[in-house]
Design a protein that fits this description.
Oligomer: single chain
CATH topology: Rossmann fold
Strand content: 15-25%
CATH class: Alpha Beta
Order of helices and strands: EHEEEHEH
Helix content: 25-40%
Number of helices: 3
Shape: globular
Structural class: alpha/beta
Strand order of the largest sheet: 2-1-3-5-4
Number of strands: 5
CATH architecture: 3-Layer(aba) Sandwich
Number of domains: 1
Radius of gyration: 15 Å
């Protein structure tokens, strides 16, 4: 399997307004990172199909919309071990996976050492049937993309 050691995975649903912010972000990053040694992936909603993205990676950056307790359009960068999901699942159901549940589940399938996981969470303003992002998320998305881009370039310089 020939893959880059680092990946950026955008999560979300284009049809639910700001829920698609992660997908919009990776679309912008894909253009900027075209000739770099990094994989840019439209991951959709976090389901078991993303497990195939883990083998061979040293680092994965996820970009997702979520209730991170911020003002709409603001975003935060964190590692999974720095937070606790507020979502309470009744068990591992394919219909109940949020990103944090998926990462806990995926961790048991990762072989060959630890993968560094970074999450960029952007606070949505609107989640309803609409393909267009809210003004707050539209305004801040280029800043989030620049921050991820700068992090990736720094990683590439260090390797």
């Amino acid at each position: 399997m020939n893959r880059a050691p680092e990946a950026i995975i955008g999560l979300g649903n284009y049809l639910l307004a700001d829920e698609g912010a992660g997908l919009h972000a990776v679309h912008l990053l894909e253009k900027r990172l075209k000739n770099k040694k990094i994989d840019v992936v439209e991951g959709g909603t976090p389901g078991l199909n993303l497990l195939h993205e883990f083998p061979g990676r040293k680092k994965i950056i996820f970009i997702d919309a979520g209730n991170c307790g911020l003002k709409p359009g603001q975003y935060i960068r964190f590692r999974p071990e720095e937070v606790e999901s507020r979502k309470r699942n009744r068990g591992f159901s394919l219909h109940e996976f949020d990103l944090m549940t998926f990462l806990r589940f995926a961790g048991s399938f990762v072989e060959g050492g630890k993968i560094e996981i970074i999450i960029y969470c952007i606070q949505p303003a609107d989640i309803h049937f609409e393909e267009k992002l809210s003004p707050a998320v539209t305004e801040s998305l280029p800043q989030l993309v620049k921050r991820v881009y700068d992090e990736v370039l720094q990683d590439l310089r260090c390797n």
